[in-house]
Amino acid sequence: MSIKIRLARGGAKKRPFYRIVVADSGSPRDGRFIERIGSYNPMVAQDHPDRLKIDTDRAKHWLGVGAQPTDRVAKFLANAGLMAPRSRPEQTKKSQPKAKAQERAKAAAAAGGEGAPAEAAG
Description:
The model has no long low-confidence stretch (mean pLDDT 87). Helix content is 27%, strand content 25%. It has a 5-stranded mixed beta sheet. It has helices spanning 56-65, 71-79, 99-112, and strands at residues 3-12, 15-24, 35-40, 52-54, 68-69. The protein is α+β, with helices and mostly antiparallel strands. The protein has a domain at 3-79: CATH 3.30.1320.10. The protein contains 3 helices and 5 strands, in the order E-E-E-E-H-E-H-H.
């Protein structure tokens, strides 16, 4: 099985605390792991030094061995400069306006010039 660098949840109910661990991909989320390489505490301010701690030497070692980080851990490692940031996929069409609304916007842009909808004189 492959090796993952992922978060293991700890802390109390509604007070999460995560350990950044290297684990076998088949082991449970909070179960057995190979090595703990850091911690993440989302309950403190973003600029607080205890929010994210990573042992960079061990993270480099595990990335060199071929361990695959999860999306969130990859973001942490990219912010620390240990790997290139992952590309974010484009959003689906669900976030765009429906077809009739797009037609109205195109018609308004063509008629008004500035993008303001043309008002009918009454």
